[in-house]
Specification:
The chain is of the alpha/beta class. It contains 15 helices and 16 strands. The chain folds into two domains: 261 residues, TIM Barrel, CATH 3.20.20.105; 93 residues, no CATH class. The strands form four sheets. Strands 4-14-13-12-11-10-6-5 form an eight-stranded parallel β-sheet. Strands 1-2-3 form a three-stranded antiparallel β-sheet. A three-stranded antiparallel β-sheet has the order 7-8-9.
């Protein structure tokens, strides 16, 4: 099981400690995404060196390949991937919504065809819990029906009701002491979000997540849903905003009281040549870096910044060398984890608003 407590507040922003069987997690926290039991291009040992204490992996993907029986036979997900820290597993609801070639929502679950080979599968709340228990994650997520955008109110209500029923079945199916988080749905409708949370609170979970965002809606709507829902979440439980990871979005959500984040943004952007630095965003492929002898970020101590120039990083990227993905990913993850540490320090010291103002001015939409 887990335990969470708030240690400091600055406005609505919260500092906290999430105690897990594999150590304490300082919050607000960013969880690197290890969808296939690996954070792309980075070794688990390097993640530890960068300061990561918890990562996210995915039920849908690991169920399809290599299969939860393979991972269970290896001693669980931690041993399988040689990761000593905590792991949160998404239940697969979003991936069934976003990746499956075909899906049919049934009362008992979802019938879908694999995006890998077209094979037919059925994922139910009970099955999602059994898979996550086999994986041995520290935090499991309930199986939800991810409401698409746009969706009319009738659809959002039906989706909410299904998510509540599935959440109840997920809790009833749990047989271990792994933590279980409920997921608030309701589309872009504030009153449905409140209803969803009320129903989840009646069931009772170890933490609560806001799902159904980052599904194509305008950023203003994502912020509205976050601002309306977050203050209603229990103060003594972890609050998790699923799939949101732009640093500016993190700042906004922390201002509302969110504790946990995950996103593929740092590693995906790294593979596409967009890097985050203390001076702003940098597109390493731009021609002005051709002859640069400067490090990517003089304030960063990651391997890319300690040992290589912008010119070399640009060369690697344009040559499509594997090392480009490695170094860029290491840097962006180092940036994110350091950014969160600075954010936590700012809350501790009562200067979060100044911290947020600085980064909003620094991380504009344009790359250097």
């Amino acid at each position: 099981m887990i335990d969470f407590r708030v240690t400091k507040t600055d406005g609505r922003a919260r500092r906290g400690v999430l105690r897990t069987p594999r150590g304490e997690i300082q919050t607000p926290v960013f969880m690197p995404v290890g969808t296939h039991a690996t954070v792309k291009a980075v070794c688990p040992e390097e993640l530890t060196e960068l300061g990561a204490g918890i990562i996210l992996s995915n039920t849908y993907h690991l169920y399809l390949r290599p299969g939860e029986d393979v991972i269970k036979g290896q001693g669980g997900l931690h041993r399988f991937m040689n990761w000593p820290g905590a792991i949160l597993t998404d239940s697969g609801g979003f991936q069934v919504f976003s990746l499956a070639r075909f899906r049919k929502i049934r009362d008992d679950g979802v019938e879908f065809r694999s995006h890998l080979d077209g094979s037919l599968h059925v994922l139910t709340p009970e099955r999602a819990i059994r898979i996550q228990e086999s994986l041995g994650s520290d935090i499991m997520m309930t199986f939800d029906e991810c409401t698409p955008y746009p969706a009319d109110e009738d659809y959002a209500l039906k989706s909410l009701s299904l998510t509540t029923e599935w959440a109840r079945r997920c809790k009833a199916a749990r047989t271990t002491d792994q933590a279980l988080f409920g997921i608030v749905q309701g589309g872009m409708y504030s009153h449905l979000r409140r209803r969803s949370l009320d129903e989840l609170l009646e069931i009772g979970f170890d933490g609560y997540a806001i799902g159904g965002v980052s599904v194509g809606e305008p950023k203003a709507l994502m912020q509205e849903v976050t601002a309306v829902t977050t203050p209603l979440l229990p103060e003594d439980r972890s609050r998790y905003l699923m799939g949101v990871g732009d640093p500016l979005d993190i700042l906004f959500a922390v201002e509302q009281g969110i504790d946990m984040f995950d996103c593929v943004m740092p590693t995906r952007n790294a593979r596409n040549g967009t890097l985050f630095t203390s001076r702003g965003r940098v597109s390493v492929k731009r021609s002005e870096h051709t002859y640069s002898t400067e490090p990517l970020d003089p304030e960063c101590a990651c391997p890319a910044c300690r040992n290589y120039t912008r010119a070399y990083l640009r060369h690697l990227f344009l040559a499509r060398e594997i090392l480009a993905m490695r170094l860029n990913s290491l840097h962006n993850l180092a940036f994110y984890l350091n950014f969160m540490q600075q954010l936590r320090d700012a809350i501790d010291e009562g200067r979060f608003s100044r911290f947020a103002k600085h980064w909003r001015e620094t991380l504009g939409p344009e790359a250097d």
